[in-house]
Specification:
By secondary structure, the chain is α+β, with helices and mostly antiparallel strands. Strand 4 and strand 5 form a beta hairpin. Strands 1, 2, 3, 4, 5, 6, 7, 8 and 9 form a nine-stranded antiparallel sheet that branches. 17% of the residues lie in helices and 31% in strands.
């Protein structure tokens, strides 16, 4: 696994105005397809994970079955009884969007989404790393209430200003085949075990999914 810091904020500068950009940064983890990326091993902190997964409605299914499958079941995510789940529905170009949010610890999040990558459905997965005292019932989802997909993604990034949110985790890949995890966070928080600068010839060859950007 390799680690890079986006010292010049080239990635976030595409989405944030200069007046708030200075407080944010991103850390980048590159790993091979054969490796397992484990939040529980990477993060030296206590906390919870809010995993957001979304899918469009499936017109080939009956409405009842479609609403039952939603996003998590559609992607074969098996949840234990007692897990906190929030279900929200949105509209995009008159098509229903299912958003499922599940609250877990780090280890459970790793297990649930271990087969997800930006090569598959992880383009629809966003994870919030939050304070251990923050729970899904406390989450204000108004940042999702816009029809503009870019504005919604920008709203998501701006959530980092809240003290209870330690990082937003996105998924990507490098064109040579490496998988990438992007942690967007306050500059006051450090995720990397070593400091390597994310240089331009690397970042130009990376795809990062702007998840939560249904349209």
């Amino acid at each position: 696994m390799r680690y890079y810091a986006d010292v010049n904020n080239d990635y976030l500068a595409k989405y944030l105005d200069a007046e708030i950009l200075d407080g944010f940064t991103s850390s980048w983890f590159f790993y091979d397809k054969t490796e397992e990326f484990k939040l529980a091993e990477v993060l030296d902190m206590e906390g919870n994970v809010f995993s957001f997964l979304w899918e469009y409605a499936d017109d080939t299914l009956s409405e009842k079955i479609d609403e039952w499958k939603r996003a998590l079941k559609r992607n074969n995510i098996q949840l234990s009884s007692g897990m906190k789940i929030i279900n929200k529905d949105y509209l995009a170009s008159e098509k229903k969007v299912y958003v499922d949010i599940v609250e877990t610890d780090f280890t459970t999040a790793d297990e649930l989404f271990k087969d997800f990558s930006a090569f598959n459905v992880a383009k629809n997965l966003t994870q919030f790393i939050v304070d251990k005292n923050m729970h899904a019932d406390d989450l204000n989802l108004s940042f999702l209430d816009t029809a503009n997909s870019l504005a919604r993604f920008e709203n998501c990034i701006k959530m980092i200003q809240y003290q209870w949110l330690d990082a937003i985790v996105l998924n990507g890949y490098h064109h040579r085949g490496d998988l990438v995890k992007v942690f967007i966070h306050s500059k006051e928080i450090h995720f990397l075990p070593e400091h390597n600068t994310l240089i331009k010839n690397i970042s130009e060859n990376i795809y990062v999914a702007n998840s939560l950007s249904w349209s």
